[in-house]
Amino acid sequence: KAGVTQTPRYLIKTRGQQVTLSCSPISGHRSVSWYQQTPGQGLQFLFEYFSETQRNKGNFPGRFSGRQFSNSRSEMNVSTLELGDSALYLCASSPLGLLPGETQYFGPGTRLLVL
Amino acid sequence: GENVEQHPSTLSVQEGDSAVIKCTYSDSASNYFPWYKQELGKGPQLIIDIRSNVGEKKDQRIAVTLNKTAKHFSLHITETQPEDSAVYFCAASLNTGTASKLTFGTGTRLQVTL
């Protein structure tokens, strides 16, 4: 079974631009979560989607948004990019995201550099 | 919300020695504690996990212990090998029945020297 895939793997943008990142979960998984990883803040939860609905949200500004499609693929968008948005953005999938102890499987991430 | 503290931030051991990484969590309702290994240029990979109704779990050279009363859990790696060198993250998860999310520790960079 193929793992979680993320595209693109690397991205360079300038301040003020917007960016869209894509995540394809493991086949059959319906829950997709997004995390931001930076050296200073570590791994921080952005949001989780299930059945095309955002079910949980972290403490990030409204510039960070996401969506999920009927095939469970998910995209996240960051508008008006700031230098501090430079990070590795990780996507994780799990079957339902509800059951206690359900494992999340991570993709390789998209490394975003904002200049 | 949940807060997870992880120590040490860096750990250097000689090949064949044991390594121990410790984490504490704040929300007593958290019920799932996975450990992830992240190698350079890759996403975190689950190596072992433990649920709140279990005190210890072992998988070959890796073991995890959980003390719910003290709200801390630890990763033990025995007979370390160079390929164990990576960044290790602990996490705590609270499944409310309507949503779940992982709160991560700040990571431990493990270096296994020859």
Structure, described:
The complex is a heterodimer of chains A (115) and B (114). Chain A has no helices and eleven strands. Chain A has 115 residues and is an all-beta fold. The relative contact order of chain A is 0.33. In chain A, β4 and β5 form a beta hairpin. In chain A, the strands form two sheets. In chain A, strands 2, 4, 5, 6, 9, 10 and 11 form a seven-stranded mixed β-sheet that branches. In chain A, strands 1-3-8-7 form a four-stranded antiparallel β-sheet, with no helix packed on it. Chain B is 0% helix and 55% strand. In chain B, the strands form two sheets. In chain B, strands 2, 4, 5, 9, 10 and 11 form a six-stranded mixed β-sheet that branches. A five-stranded antiparallel β-sheet of chain B has the order 1-3-8-7-6, with no helix packed on it. In chain B, β6 and β7 form a beta hairpin. Chain B is globular, with a radius of gyration of 14 Å. Chains A and B meet through β5 and β10 of A and β4, β5 and β10 of B.
Please indicate the percent range of residues of chain B in DSSP E strands (runs of 2 or more): over 45%
How helical, in percent, are the residues of chain B? under 10%
Number of strands of chain B: 11
Shape annotation of chain A: globular
The ordered string of helix (H) and strand (E) elements of chain B is EEEEEEEEEEE
Helix content of chain A: under 10%
Straight-line distance between termini of chain B: 41 Å
Main sheet properties of chain A: 7 strands, mixed
Q: What is the beta-strand fraction of chain A?
A: over 45%
What class would the helix/strand composition of chain A place it in?
Answer: mainly beta
Return Rg of chain B in Å.
14 Å
The biggest sheet of chain B amounts to: 6 strands, mixed
Number of helices of chain A: 0
Mean pLDDT of chain A: 93
Oligomer: heterodimer
Question: Low-confidence parts of chain B lasting 5 or more residues at pLDDT below 50?
Answer: none
Which two chains form the greatest contact, residue counts included?
Answer: A-B, 26 and 26 residues
